[in-house]
Amino acid sequence: MHNLEDVTRLPDDFDGRVRLFPLPGLVVFPHAMQPLHIFEPRYCEMLAESLASDRMIAMATLTGGISAVSAETPPIASTVCLGKIISHAELDGDRHNILLVGTRRAKIVRELDAGRTFRIAEVDVAEDIYPPTGSEARRELKKQLLEAFGEIIPVSANVQQNLHELMAGQMGLGPITDIISYTLPFEVESKLRLLAEPDVDSRATELVRLLRSGTIQLHSVSVEEQALNDTTSERFPPPFSLN
């Protein structure tokens, strides 16, 4: 079991430069765990460098559609999620399975020519901002968010119990918004808007709006396993993503 605070702390010598791992259709959030299957040579090189140093990788979202994936430098969203490798398994044929936990949202300032086969960028890290609205107003916003979430997930006694525990628990509004945003199948554009918003109250308000818009229809208990169980559980991550 990892201490989450230790895992998500940025290195003391962090200089704003990150390794980029662009994937189509994937938006990773802080506080979420993403399994990845790495086999392409340039990303194996990226992984080796990461494991030998800070164990960090920045997950970026390709924005040009499938046709742009094969481009030498396909376009990516300007907002990325910094991640920390917490598990690594080397497989035959220079293939690797890793588990990445999101640590910070960040905005790309510029990409750098660092002489690597993979992409490197300089980023500005954005910490969560909690406006001085008062604890009572934020408790009400948390209540609205979890109620809206509860209205669309499968109904079961276990789900409702977990929801009540989450509502009464000490997890902050920021992590809750990030975990829900990551877990639910919103459009990529909506997820990128949520990732780009450091203001926790604004992010939660937008997430409530999305949840109540009627665009999300869920018919599987998998959401219970992904969003309401301990995020360190092996059942939480979705299947491994291919690079």
Notes on the protein architecture:
The chain is α+β, with helices and mostly antiparallel strands. It has 2 domains: 125 residues, LON domain-like (Archaeosine Trna-guanine Transglycosylase, Chain: A, domain 4, Roll); 94 residues, no CATH class. Helix content is 35%, strand content 26%. It has 9 helices and 7 strands. Strands 1-3-4-5-6 form a 5-stranded mixed β-barrel. Helix 4 runs antiparallel to helix 5, helix 4 packs parallel to helix 6 and helix 4 packs parallel to helix 8. The chain is globular and about 50 Å long. The C terminus is likely disordered.
Write down the secondary-structure element order.
Answer: HEEHEHEEEHHHHHHE
- Which structural class do you get from the secondary structure elements? alpha+beta
Query: What is the mean pLDDT?
Result: 84
How is the CATH topology of the largest domain named? Archaeosine Trna-guanine Transglycosylase, Chain: A, domain 4
CATH superfamily annotation of the largest domain: LON domain-like
- How many structurally independent domains? 2
The backbone outline, from C-alpha atoms, is globular
Widest beta sheet: strand line-up:
1-3-4-5-6
CATH class of the largest domain: Mainly Beta
Helix segment tally: 9
Major pleated sheet:
5 strands, mixed, barrel
What is the CATH-assigned architecture of the largest domain?
Roll
Rg for CA atoms: 18 Å
